[in-house]
Structures are given as C-alpha cells and as structure tokens.
Amino acid sequence: MTTNAVAADYRTNRFTLVYEGAITNNEPGKVNIHPVHYDLNGLKIVANIYTPANYDPKRKYAAIVVAHPNGGVKEQTAGLHAQRLAELGYITIAMDAAYQGGSGGEPRSTDKPQFRIEDIHGAADFITRYSGVDPARLGLLGICGGGGYSLAAAKSDKRFKAVATLSMFNSGRVRRNGFADSQLGMIQQRLKQASEARAQEKAGGKILYSGDADMTDAQIAALPFEMYRQGYEYYWRTHAHPGSTFKYTTSSLLDLMRWDATDRIELIEQPLLMIAGSKADSLYMTEDAFAKATGAKDKELFKIDGATHIETYWVARYVDATIGKLTTFFARTL
C-alpha cells in the first residue's frame, strides 16, 4: 500500500476489532462498546453499539447509524468511525449486514440492495429505542457500498435527519457497468451468467460466487484499479477479519445490476455531506451522486487531499480529516 500498515490481528482484541486505537476493555468514564443482536425480518443481526464517555441512560443523546463497506464487517472501518463518533458524544451502531459477517441469513454472502437498505432501516429501528437515544436526532454514515445503500435508505426514511457518506461506492453501477464503466460491452453476458446461477441455486445445485479469489501479492499488485489493489491488501492482509469477504452470490447480480444508488436521489432533502479522497479512482461515483442530489439544498462535497479510496478507511490523517468534517456537520444538523 502507498502508506505502510501494520497488520492487525482480530484474535488479540476481545471484541475482534481490527482498527488502530480500538477499544480493548470497557472502562468507566470512557467510550464503551456493547455487542448486541436483534431480529430483522426473522434474521438475527449482530451489531456493536458505542456509548460516549460517562454515558448516562437517563440523558438524551443524538445517535448515528454506520453502514459498512461491501465485503466489510462492523469490526473494521465501520467500527473505527463509530468509535470516533462516540468520542464526540454520540451513541453509534455498526451492524453486520444480513447474510454477511456474524449476522444470519442463507445463502451466505448474499448481497442484494434491498437487503442492505433494510439493514439500515432495521438499525434505525433498534438504535432509536436504545436507552438514552433521542430518536429525533438520528444521523447516518455510510462507507463505500454502505454509502450507496445509505443514500437509498435516506430517500424515504426521514427518521434520518442528516446523511453522510465516505468513499461512496455505487454497487449497482459497478456490478452493471464494471469499475470505471469498463465492462459496458459485457452486460448482457453477465446477466445471462447471473440468471443461470440463480436457476442452479434454486434447483438445489451448487451456489456460485463472484468476486472471490485467493490472490498472491504479485497478483494483487497486477490488478488494474488502485481501489481493488489496496482493497485486497486491507481486507486480506492488514485488516483481515474472518467475517469479511469479497465474495457475493452470483445470483445477487440479478438485483444489483438493475439497481442504482442514484435512482430518485432527488428524494433526499436532508442535509447531505459526501466525503471522498481526491486521488480515489472511485471518486467519479461520489461526484455523480452529489450532482444528482438536487433535493438536498444543504449539501457539501468534501475531498480529502491526497487520499485514495481504501486509505480513507484507516490512514490516521485521513480519518482525522473525515472526523473533522463530520464533527461540524453532525453538530449543526443533529
């Protein structure tokens, strides 16, 4: 990676967190972490709730839902940003998506937009009933794929009073068109493959997966897009977690390829902050969504100077830049 990272070992943290500065033990007077689970449409969802220092359940706090990247889990960058926001005085929740990580659902690694969006609604259901939370002051932060799904959730869920994204990834556009729209000529072919995968799956055959590979360092280095090169290093080397995987069921593409995070994005009227690295090869997705979000009169696009997509997940100075913007944004809007 362009910035050196020391590998984090989930086995050395009692909460299996893999980010720098992670909570190791709950201590009085400090930010604490509370593993929880709840039911969402018959599935068990696992999540971590972070409470601020000197948390008093009799007080009223603003709360923020944090949605993780595609393939990620709550113990990685979603947890890092949830913890940092809790340090600012918010109650935050980072959950594993249904069918992914530690949450329930079969087949594993199903990645359908309607499920990821429902995850965000479900987290709002749970956190707004948590002791000390003021349901009238609920915010939303989505990272990478979670950012695209957060935009979709906020279009209709007006419990979210403010919406922020970090390194937003429009999963539908990329699965349909390829990264940087590089596979436009193969859309029909890939739709046929997805259709065949669903037919096989529903007939009781082998479940097929896309995006799964056990790559050598040399193969990773040869990938054409920086986001994917650094992504494999982040998820498989420096911040690996057993619940995290790049793969998703090939049949999910039937839903992903007909979906787009920017469809009816003008329905977002809440304050909107979109953050992305100035050097990210995924920046085009944030810029496109921001321009189309014409319903949000209070909106800002903030570029972190010099940052790539994956570096915004963990590089200290870039995380600090994100938190600095979120500090003023959520203080003003929540």
Structural summary, described in words:
The radius of gyration is 19 Å and the shape is globular. The two termini are 36 Å apart. With 334 residues, it is α/β, with parallel strands linked by helices. Helix 2 (113-127) crosses helix 3 (145-156). It has helices at residues 77-87, 113-127, 145-156, 171-177, 187-202, 217-221, 226-238, 253-256, 283-292, 311-314, 316-333, and strands spanning 32-40, 43-51, 61-67, 91-95, 133-143, 160-166, 209-210, 248-249, 272-277, 299-304. The chain has a single domain (10-333), classed as Alpha/Beta hydrolase fold, catalytic domain (Rossmann fold), CATH 3.40.50.
Quick summary:
The chain is of the alpha/beta class and 334 residues long. 34% of the residues lie in helices and 19% in strands.
